[in-house]
Design goal:
elongated; protease; single chain; Aminopeptidase; 31% helix; 9-stranded antiparallel β-sheet; 6-stranded mixed β-sheet; Alpha-Beta Plaits; Peptidase_M20; 23 strands
Length: 486
């Protein structure tokens, strides 16, 4: 497993990644990885700082002959998305990631791999540890909680860093140089409802939607992948319209920045409709799977008998909930008019929980245009408020505006073409990078983002390309040698 990963080239990179993946590091539970990183820097005899929110800064002087170059900030985030397959037994709080090599890919056994952003962290660790890599003065910045609120970047105060150029190592296509990104905001709808005793003449059913690809709610939203919460709502809406289906519980999706892969619901119907209901659900499941067969070949929708639930939702609230979820936008809202192929604004209906008299719906709305972000957020708020929900906006973070005249962009563009014989794709992305937030307190710092190829981030299908990591490592080494002079 990890032994095979450690044997990969470049060993300096993969060994540091393997070391990191032995440390549990889910978002908002980074205590162990913070200590791990502090110990790493201290053992190297380097200056180590932990700021008041938990970010770790490690400073390393320039190598001989590089003292006249600008100081760089090499930045990656310590936390990782914790997602696993439904049939995988794994505790992210106490277990390290179990990795294996699959052809040109490094994967994890039934969980997210943590290459986002672990390969960036490992890169910085390898540079800090090396005694022969040429580089200018480095401030290594390891932020926390990027995946669930970017609170590390938000909490980093101005004046702590002295660097002139920031290299963010959180891009997931090795032919891309990132110069901008989308901002985001969490839209959370809540309400309470009265539960009713379930009449005895009804039957209980468990409805399951699973087998979807999932993925990154920013980078993958353009693909039109299935959203388990929207599919589940379609099934429940149909069951209610045709057979008076009543909802007892819903548990769909997981993290705000992951496209929902699974959803489960407990419902009740009148016993007299048993055969017709089961036939209708089977036909509807076949129809939905046919619609999604190209993008979601493993989609599975099942409706199975279960114990009759003791309680069901108030009928009026159920009607409002299913209609609101039908009306709420999920996916791409608008494409950029300025950058071809870039999603400008989108929404991910990430989480739907209905249980014990409480409803919670969580969305992550993204946009590279601040006004458009708030426009869509307000549209969602209005949709959910019409059904009696209270709606909260939180976790707001800005986008990163491209600077096409940055000197570091010229360096990376020239080096990429020299190493690969073709031009890099210079682009903004629809993901949320920390650069926009960091730039608020460091407005004069030039920023750029790049990284190795990673597929399926934020899902158990996450995998990192071995050949790409090799190209990326060579790129990093050349960049460090070509940092502009002060």
């Amino acid at each position: 497993m990890s032994k095979d990963v450690r044997a990969l080239e470049p060993k300096a990179l993969w060994n540091k990644f393997a070391d990191l993946n032995e440390v549990p590091r889910p978002s908002k539970k980074e205590e162990r990885v913070i200590q791990f990183m502090k110990d790493f820097g201290t053992n190297l005899g380097l200056e180590v700082i932990e700021d008041e929110v938990g970010n770790v800064i490690i400073r390393k002087p320039a190598t001989a002959g590089m003292e006249n170059r600008k100081t760089i900030v090499m930045q990656s985030h310590l936390d990782m998305v914790h997602q696993k397959n439904n049939d995988t037994t794994f505790d992210f709080d106490i277990q390290g990631i179990e990795m294996y090599v699959d052809g040109d890919w490094v994967r994890a056994k039934g969980t997210t791999l943590g290459a986002d952003n672990g390969l960036g962290v490992a890169t910085i660790m390898a540079v800090l540890e090396s005694e022969h890599i040429q580089h200018p003065a480095i401030e290594a910045l390891f932020t926390i909680d990027e995946e669930t609120g970017m609170t590390g970047a938000k909490g980093l105060k101005g004046g702590l860093l002295t660097g002139d150029i920031l290299l963010n190592l959180d891009t997931e296509e090795d032919d891309e140089i990132g110069v901008g990104c989308a901002g985001g905001i969490d839209v959370t709808a809540r309400r309470t409802y009265k539960e009713e005793e379930t009449p005895e003449f009804k039957l209980g059913y468990k409805v399951t939607v699973k087998g979807l690809q999932g993925g990154h709610s920013g980078m993958d939203i353009i693909k039109g992948l299935g959203n388990a919460n929207k599919i589940m709502n379609r099934v429940l809406f149909d069951g209610f319209e045709n057979f008076g289906l009543r909802i007892s519980e819903i548990d769909g999706g997981s993290l705000r920045n992951a496209i929902p892969r699974e959803s489960n619901a407990i419902v009740a119907i009148d016993a007299v409709h048993k055969d017709a209901f089961e036939n209708e659900m089977d036909a509807l499941a076949t129809l939905i799977k046919t619609e999604n067969k190209t993008l979601e070949p493993n989609l599975n929708i099942s409706v199975e008998s279960c114990e009759l639930p003791e309680k069901i939702m108030d009928l009026g609230v159920q009607e409002g909930l299913t209609r609101a979820l039908y009306a709420a936008l999920n996916g791409v809202y608008r494409m950029s008019a300025d950058i071809e192929g870039l999603v400008e604004t989108s929404n991910n209906i990430a989480r739907v929980i209905v249980k014990d008299g409480e409803i919670k719906i969580g969305c992550l709305t993204r946009s590279s245009v601040e006004s458009a972000k708030m426009d869509l957020a307000n549209a969602l708020r209005a949709t959910f408020e019409l059904t009696g929900c209270e709606v909260e906006f939180s976790g707001d973070y800005p986008g990163w505006t491209p600077n096409m005249d940055a000197s570091i962009l010229k360096v990376l563009s020239s080096l990429y073409e020299k190493l690969n014989g073709e031009k890099a794709h210079v682009a903004a992305c629809h993901a949320g990078l920390e650069c926009g937030i960091l730039g608020q307190n460091y407005p004069d710092m030039e920023m750029i983002s790049f990284g190795p190829t990673i597929r399926g981030a934020h899902s158990p299908d996450e995998r990192a390309s071995i050949s790409s990591a090799q190209r990326y490592w060579k790129f990093v080494l050349e960049i460090l040698k070509e940092i502009p002079k002060k």
